[in-house]
Amino acid sequence: MSLKRVIINADDFGLCAGVNAGIIKAHREGILTSTSLMTNTPGFEEAVEMARQNPGLGVGVHLNLVRGRPILPPEKVSSLLRSDGYFYGKVGPIFFGLIRGKIKIAEVEQEWRAQIEKALNAGLAVTHLDSEKHVHTFPPLLRLTLKLAAEYAIFRVRLIRERCLAWPPVQMIKALVVSRWCSSQRPVLEGMGLKTVDHFFGFCQAGKVSSGWLQKILKHLPEGVSEIMTHPGYLTPELLELEKKLGSYYINRRRENELKALLAPELRPLTAKLGIRLISYRDL
């Protein structure tokens, strides 16, 4: 059995039809093994049906406090929302809102429970929990995420463990901070009987995943279990229209490039040659 295993995960399943189509194509024809489902966005129902038709694809829940409207009635989670009833659309207001006590953890818990239960009630065997823009890694929210993973018997949570070089260095600094947050909670995760990956790749590469970069990562993959985060999809008029409501997102214009990378014909033979096992979170 190979000592090197890798989860190739696509974030944002359920965002819209174009993203859903790209993720399924990357799974059927490329090396994608896993995805993270947004439950409060327009493509949710279609994504659920696609997941049923592709049982080999691992499906986690992409916990969301950043984009779109909440699952719960706005009056129940008002601290999480702008005046128009949408999430803030950026990480900054969430981060500082939590620090200042403006955002109520109890409301986050209620909303995230609703998101998890929506996926479970759709009949999905949820493989893991992660989040839009990694907000679940902020220590108070990570402790909540671990609690929910154990309570709903999901047992697997994305933790970030990545050192990367990037210019300008903002993303590199973010990766360092998030990795330290995750490291501080790793003993808690393990003590609760939960599982995560040993290594993570893609924080600094978000929106810039290429076939060459994937080959480089695979050729130097460390022993243990790694996750490679990707964002495949198609840039459609629907997605551009969604940006007007959910906020602009630079990755949207790079999704087709990431899809092309995941479909590169040389990747699957390379994993076989290197003895790398492609898995999903359900295999942890």
Description:
The structure is a single chain. The chain contains ten helices and seven strands. The model has no long low-confidence stretch (mean pLDDT about 95). The chain has one domain (about 5-284): TIM Barrel (Alpha-Beta Barrel), CATH 3.20.20.370. The protein is α/β, with parallel strands linked by helices and about 280 residues long. Strand 5 (about 200), helix 7 and strand 6 form a beta-alpha-beta unit. The protein starts with a strand and ends in a 5-residue tail after the last strand. Strands 1, 2, 3, 4, 5, 6 and 7 form a seven-stranded parallel sheet that branches. The protein is globular and about 55 Å long.
Which class best fits the helix and strand makeup? Answer: alpha/beta
**Inertia-based shape:** globular
Q: What is the second-level CATH architecture?
A: Alpha-Beta Barrel
Distance between the termini: 14 Å
Overall tally of domains: 1
Determine the CATH superfamily: Glycoside hydrolase/deacetylase
What proportion of the residues form beta strands (DSSP E)?
A: 5-15%
Report the order of strands and helices.
EHEHEHHEHHEHEHHHE
Number of helices: 10
Please give the largest β-sheet: 7 strands, parallel
DSSP strand count: 7
Provide the CATH topology. TIM Barrel
State mean pLDDT (0 to 100 scale).
Answer: 95
Broad CATH class: Alpha Beta
